[in-house]
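Listing S7. Sequence submitted for prediction.
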Amino acid sequence: MCVSLVFPKERCFRWGYLPHAEPGVTQSDSAISRRGIAGRERLFYGAQIGSETRNLEFKLGRGHYLRNIFQHDLRKYACAFLNGEGGSLLVGVDNAGKVRGVCCNHRLQDRTRLMVDAMLKRFQPPLLPHNYNLSFLPVVQPGTSQPFLQVLRFSVWPPPVPDPPMLYQTDQGMVYLRRDASVEGPLTAGLIQQWFRQVESEIHGSPAVEKIWEW
């Protein structure tokens, strides 16, 4: 099922910048931006990189998170970010915004990349590779012999708004929306209609017309 919205152009979502990292977080002057963290791409263990926002989500990622849970979170947050202004999911950062890192060998990295590519191709509409990025950022722990840690950074930015605009769906046909620093969904048809009514009221009587059809 594909959900398409038709509403006034001033309501269409556009890309917004992602929050910049705090000074001193990276080895260079890198920052979290639309295209990711540029430069030498190293984070320091325990560094503070900000707070969760509409465009930024943190997951600690301990234990078997990457093998067992990441796939579910990717599906949910990628869809929610696409139905908003885009955003980044950082795995290896705690809820307070401090870098903790996760253990991820080359085999697990490759497996994760393949999973991400395969899933996003099955979104509706399908997402092209230039609209997302997956990278693994080394975490520096001076003076320790702890296992090599990394922060997984997945970023996604919506393509130009189509005419008429559409809500993205996951590979399982679910719809998610980002609200401040939380996610709503999966949305039922009734909740989607309720959201349309809210949109209509926010734009002072300009009707939002929902279209739902089977692929």
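Caption to Listing S7: primary sequence and predicted structure tokens for the chain studied. Residues 2-213 form one domain. Residues 119 and 171 are 6 Å apart (CA to CA).
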